[in-house]
């Protein structure tokens, strides 16, 4: 018997509510309330931060929360958690996803949390335990943190085989809310899609064959301003499981895009496209890049719908700018790679509402508004996209065939004057075997921003930031890179 995504979500909530007396709390909107450190809500625990920080109003309802369960709309497309670059390239990172979570605020701790999770996965959902791996915190000598042996023992007592319990360090198995505040070891559950003999080597290795599904965080310390760790008087549990990944497992698929959360969308996309249907190719096999385009459009239309429904519109700074970038990427992949007509992107919104509207009714009530906003923004972008395409063509003609380095000044102009996101420029160039010298681009950007600052207040902070980041991991600056001077519109 196959689990529909609706059943999977329902079962998670019911399990914690009915069997373990958790209170069901609705998802918060994806726009963070009163938390300037966040662009988007990126985890289930965001709305419970005041409880964990001890700053909750004692008269508020939240002050009484001890055991809570929910399914939270999350966006990871900017700030500390930014999975935008992975979307479409892999089959298990989305910009929008749903995080199923259960919490204990000063109530149960490690033993109960692990046993609830194990029971749910293996008994209720029926996942074979020989497809699961668990990780635990290995300790960290530099920070004076001990190994989380307690958790290893708990997994053993639940019947997990010793060779399926793997230690990892700070990066994967120690969670901190921020520079200061609650923190502690975590234990994660990973699913082996291949039933492989050496699958344990693929845990936390960014492989589609062994995918992390559930993170259980045990908050037991507080990081103080002087960096020392103080044991918390009250320990808490914060867990998060990606619904899309879980549904993939339960529907016996290898890709989130092959589940009922995405297949209706992929068909709707195909209806508007002039290319063959989605076939699930990835990486090198996806030479025409059409499958990646299908995934990007399907991912991005979910994010756009959810964000707009929650009042985040495409715009010029912060989360709005991120959303504008997502919209432009979606339009570009849909119209150029999949050859869809204008208006096709907005026409997908009812399908998103059909898939997710039961869980998030605002998608039903806001369908028309979401479509209008997408259409307006699409029209604007399509006209500049045409202009940009012409600029790239003309520049390439002038460059000659002995270089693959695209002039940074032109790239910057595309970005600054025509509003092209930097990652979109990269993609358009990559398709023609070209790249911008990132160091050069950063210099041009810095110079131009300085010059423009006085007359233009709306500096594109986020894109500047991503430029700096691209520069850090990007093409090293070479002194013999060609220097072009090009002014937009110089020939028409
Ligand atoms: P990964 O290592 O795969 O990037 P993560 O360690 O960053 O995941 P957590 O912050 O631990 O993820 O979030 C809890 C759970 O949320 C993960 O175990 C995973 O199931 C899910 N999840 C995280 N990021 C995404 C994403 N971009 N798309 C879909 N699901 C995600
Ligand atoms: Mg991640
Ligand atoms: Mg991880
Ligand atoms: Mg994790």
Automatic annotation (TrEMBL):
Its EC number is 6.1.1.7. The keyword Heme does not apply. Keywords: Aminoacyl-tRNA synthetase, ATP-binding, Ligase, Metal-binding, Nucleotide-binding, Protein biosynthesis, RNA-binding, tRNA-binding, Zinc. Residues 3-492 form the Alanyl-transfer RNA synthetases family profile domain. Its cofactor is Zn(2+). It catalyses: tRNA(Ala) + L-alanine + ATP = L-alanyl-tRNA(Ala) + AMP + diphosphate. Binds 1 zinc ion per subunit. The keyword Flavoprotein does not apply. One of its GO terms (cellular component) is mitochondrion. GO terms for molecular function: alanine-tRNA ligase activity; aminoacyl-tRNA deacylase activity; ATP binding; tRNA binding; zinc ion binding. It is an enzyme of class 6 (ligase). Catalyzes the attachment of alanine to tRNA(Ala) in a two-step reaction: alanine is first activated by ATP to form Ala-AMP and then transferred to the acceptor end of tRNA(Ala). Also edits incorrectly charged tRNA(Ala) via its editing domain. Belongs to the class-II aminoacyl-tRNA synthetase family. Alax-L subfamily. Monomer. Interacts with ANKRD16; the interaction is direct. This is Alanine--tRNA ligase. It comes from Chanos chanos (Milkfish). The lineage of its organism: Eukaryota, Metazoa, Chordata, Craniata, Vertebrata. The chain holds residues 22 to 513 of 977 of the full protein.
